[in-house]
Amino acid sequence: MSIIHEPLLQHAAIKKLHPTQITVGMREVRQMRERWGGERRKKTAKNLDQHLVPVILGPNNRHYIVGHHHLARALYDEGVKRVFVTVLENLSGLSPEAFWSVLDNRSWTHPYDEKGRRQTYDAIPRSVRDLTDDPFRSLASELHRLGGFAKQTIPFSEFLWADFLRSQIARKLVENDFSRAMEEALELAKRPPANYLPGWCGPEE
What we know:
By secondary structure, the protein is of the alpha/beta class. It has helices at residues 26-36, 41-46, 69-77, 96-105, 135-145, 157-166, 171-176, 178-189; strands at residues 8-13, 23-24, 53-57, 63-65, 82-90, 132-133.
């Protein structure tokens, strides 16, 4: 007989949540802030408990985010103080070295910078406020929204698409003319060189 564990829900201060990645797409963060703000803010606040931030309990009982980094950053920028988190696993008894090794092996961390380069775990910011912008992550997110690739459960699949687009499109174009960059991204997403990426839905030969 299998045992079903109920998720452990906690109320946590957003400023004390620890990221497990270095970058986010700030364009996506701004869009989330726009949806949060204005007349819809009160309604959204009432439903905030439906957007649980998944975390791992790490050394010193700190909460390490393993999803919804964009949401956490957007709420932080909007001045929201606390958010509900769901603790997926308690690894608080591990040393920092063992903790990050477990996260890496379970695809719960993505220590890559805004140029797609692997960094040490020390490079991961200690607060969501210090997450840096990767414009190609925003491009990949918009590409998915427009149907450029199918939704996947593979961890960090949008970062894989971001790295592919990074190798094909100039960063200045993404920063200065996002619409044109998106046109190129939609075209590139259909081509065979992208067929190794999760969710690829280009034409079959």
